[in-house]
Design a protein that fits this description.
Blueprint lengths: L5 H10 L1 E4 L5 H17 L14 H17 L5 E5 L18 E6 L1 H4 L1 H7 L2 H9 L5 E9 L9 E4 L7 E2 L4 E7 L10 E3 L10 E5 L8 E5 L10 E3 L6 E5 L4 E3 L10 E8 L4 E2 L20
Antiparallel strand pairs: 1-12, 2-3, 3-4, 4-14, 5-13, 6-15, 7-12, 7-14, 8-11, 8-13, 9-10
Length: about 290
């Protein structure tokens, strides 16, 4: 029996998202979380987080912002650590436990971390891509998202295609895998069903080389009716398939629990143009890898 049924496909196409239970076993979820815990213990704090003190506040801010921007925009083919605000003191030392300091790790876990690579290319994932009719899907990026207890912030309403733009639209799919139960209390996803058919109103693009900030937005995010959002709690090991244009958000984590997620994006590469203005670009070191393995 297919992991993804015809009814699931229909719901995804009509609503712009679908929840599928049981992509991973509880043990597989725990292994991914354990590996990430080990990586966090071993990580080097990026230099731009350890800012040297300067009496010129503007200069210090500029140096830090440029460091942050460089670190982010060159992270597509690397594994890098992105922190919550306020977790370092002036010297760049932790003022919270290391494991509670991170917002996310990205953006190439799928390429360099064997456990994450195995999940990304798993028979179930390849099977659902085929079920959706993808001919030549590639993996764009991957992230581990922490959503820390009490400080894991709100993610405002957005469409993934704002950041991962293709011509034509409709070629990007997000897979959002809950490594723990995602509930209303710890910041699960909310969606506006059927909001994936109207295009996008905003794009994040690279700015001309040498300018800061390195990215900027064109257009603006629409204002959405709060009443239209439906909550999508998911069980540990489940996956949410997310159309690149469906509007979704998550609330802050008000609980004492983490909400760990492994997420990655696929693109149908056949007859698709990946925008050279996107922040994320394939590199010589890491062209976007094919999902299907021979």
């Amino acid at each position: 029996m297919d992991f993804m049924t015809d009814r699931d496909v229909q719901k995804y196409l009509e609503e712009g998202y679908v929840v599928l239970d049981g992509l991973l076993t509880p043990q597989e979820c725990d292994e991914l979380r354990q590996r990430m815990g080990d990586m966090v213990e071993e990580m080097d704090v990026p230099q731009h987080c350890r800012t040297t003190f300067s009496t010129n506040h503007d200069e210090q801010l500029k140096t830090q912002m440029q460091g942050n921007a460089d670190y982010f925009i060159t992270s597509g083919d690397k594994i890098r650590f992105f922190f919550e605000k306020g977790v370092f003191d002036d010297k760049g030392d932790f003022i919270v436990p290391k494991q509670r300091s991170l917002n996310k790790v990205g953006h190439a876990l799928h390429a360099y971390e064997p456990l994450y690579k195995k999940v990304t290319h798993s028979p179930k994932v390849q099977g659902l891509a085929k079920k959706l009719g993808l001919i030549s899907p590639v993996i764009l990026q991957s992230m581990f998202i922490f959503k820390q207890p009490r400080i894991g912030g709100e993610v405002t309403p957005h469409q993934d295609a704002t950041f991962l733009y293709t011509e034509p639209l409709g070629r990007v799919i997000g897979l959002w895998i809950a490594l723990e139960d995602a509930t209303e209390n710890n910041g699960c996803l909310w969606f506006i069903p059927r909001s994936h058919n109207s295009g996008i109103s905003r794009r994040m693009v690279r700015t001309p080389k040498g300018s800061y900030p390195m990215t900027d937005f064109t257009g603006r995010e629409q204002t959405y009716d709060e009443q239209k959002f439906l909550v999508a709690p998911v069980k540990k090991g489940s996956v949410v398939l997310i159309d690149g244009e469906v509007v979704h958000r998550s609330a802050e984590n008000t609980s004492e629990d983490t909400r760990h997620v492994y997420t990655f994006h696929l693109m149908e590469s056949q007859d698709t143009r990946w925008s050279p203005d996107n922040w994320l670009q394939p590199t010589e070191e890491l062209p976007f890898p094919q999902l299907y393995t021979k």
